[in-house]
Every structure is written in structure tokens, then in C-alpha cells.
Amino acid sequence: MAGARTPVARPLVTVLGASGYIGSAVVALLRGRPVRLRTVSRRPCTVAGDGLAELDVRTADLTDPVSLAEAVAGSDAVIHLVTHRSAAGDWRTRDGDPEGERANVTVTRDLIESLSSGRAGGPPPTVIYASTVLPPGGPAPANAYERQKLTSERALRAASAAGSLHGVVLRLPTVYGHGPVPGDLGRGVVAAMIRRAVAGEPLTMWHDGTIEVDLLHVEDTAGAFLSALDHAEALAGRYWDAGCGFGHGLGDVFRTIAEIVGRHTGHPPVPVLRVNPPQGAIGMNFRSVRADSSAFRSVTGWRPRAVLRDALEQAVAAHSASTGHVRTPTPPHTGLSTKEGIHL
Looking at residue 336, what is its pLDDT? Predict the structure, then answer.
């Protein structure tokens, strides 16, 4: 028909590590957008409910460069959430661990190579990369994980400077909270302490409890990635902290978890104890962390919305229900401290 307009193809957004803790939250938000959404992970990514996105669910070993190239072929944007799970079941990478190096560095380099060589015209693709908050005053990695993340950051920034892609680095603090996958609380310190408290075990600290952490809810984290996607050209070539911007004393957080769990289980709150650190404990466990997201907020308009106390209540309720340690909770007591709307 004369004058008919050729339909514009929906952008292809690929999420690497889509079945993971943060990945599942990112996918849940992207599900509501009019995009072609390709999810890639070692295990199938379950996407619940209806949405506007056209889904392409894939499984692949992304440490294999051929599989990675196939996974990202034709992508307009890639959200890179691939991470290494250590033998201990957490994200920490030990020095000399080749699997950690492969997941945290080699995958990024292979991704850059695939996107740089596989694009035939058009604007460069966007890569949004999940990194970790480093100490203020310049990069000073405290361990293998931080060194590897910084290496990947530099590779993306170099590729962005060369015009091969729009590389955006989001540096994240501690991510917590109950995500879209039932029962999934993540692998961070908050999740670990909720599990311990529900099991009736004491909550232990290697310090006096004044060490502070910036806590970012998993849904706010997912929102930050979508905001970065929407403002990729303005953000490209730099790293950006994404967090609440202030710290919470771990002693206060642990005692709040113990109190909430006690109400949900009907048992007295478990004790919060200071213990001697194990041999080999690394420096990052003894430093306060804050993510100054003011620059990221000014460009994107993003801001965290979760209320910490409410989020802890939700996480405890979900884990208590999944383990059968639940009773009708009594109303929470008041008088806990408040900072910028975040309740401890």
C-alpha cells in the first residue's frame, strides 16, 4: 500500500547470566518492554507472566568463546552479569583460581571481540557491565575478585574509546533482598545472616559492628541497569557507582535481622556475637563501603526506592515460609533509627 511505513525492528537486548540473582530481576523488568529479549545462562531462565518482550531463552557455557559469540550475535545491547561461583558457593575468587579468571576477565574480552568483529554497520552495540564498588580515592583492589573486575572495566573502557561499543560500567555495593525467583535471597552477607537466624544460629561478626555497608535492593539494582541501558550513550566509557550513598552499621543490621526472624519464627532473637576472624580473612571484610551514586543519578534520574526494614521483613518472611519456620508474626516494634527513608 502506498505510503506504508516499514516496521522498525525491535532492539535485541541480551542478558548474560540471566538466571542468576541479579539477572532474574533484570529479566523481570525487561519482560515489560517492547524489545526482543534473549536470556542466556547455564541453566534455563524462567520468565513468569506475560509481557511485551519477544523471548528467546537459551542455555550456554559462556566461558566457551564460540558459544558466547553465538549468544550475543546481532545484539543491540548486552547486559553482562556473568560471575564466578567459588567452591565455597559464593562470588569470591581466590588468587590462582583459573575458573574465576575465566569468568570475570576472559568472558569480557571474548565478548568485546565478538561484538567488535560481528557487527555489520549501524551504531555500535551497548554493553552494561556489573562491577563492584572500589575504595574512594582511586582503584586499590583488595583481592583477586576486585582486580579481575577492574581488568574487565579497563577492557570495556578501551573498547568504548575505540568506538567498538558503548561500554558502561556499573559498580555495585552489597546487593540484598528477595528477588523475583521464589526463595532466592542471593549470596551476600544479608542473605547469609537471615539463613543463620532462621536456623537458630548466632550471627557472628569479625569486628565491633561499626563497619558500614551500602545495601542496594536487588530490584533497585535491576532498575539501575535499565536506566543505564536508556542512557548508554551519555554514560559510555566510564564507571558509575550505583548505591544508596550511605552505610549501615553491620551490628545494627544483624540485630534487626535477629529481631525480625524472632517474630516470624516465634523464638527469641538469636544472639549477635563478635568472634575472632579466621586465618586469611582479607582486608575488604574490615572496611566500610559506600557507593556515591550522585553522578549516575544526575544523568539517569535513577534512585533507589527500597526501605531497608521493609525489605528485610519481606526477605525473612519468604525464607521462613520456604523452610517451614513460620508463624503469624507480631507487629514490628518502633523506635529503630531512620536515615533518608531507609529503616534499620
Answer: 33
